[in-house]
Amino acid sequence: MAPDLPASELIAHLGFWLRAVSNRVSHAFAAKLAGKGVTVAEWVMLRTLYRKDPVPPSRLAEAMGMTRGAITKLADRLIDKSLIVRTASRGDGRTHTLALTPRGTLLVPELAMLADRNDAEFFGHLSAAEREDLERLLQGMVERCQIKAMPID
Question: Is the pLDDT of residue 1 over 70?
Answer without folding.
Answer: no
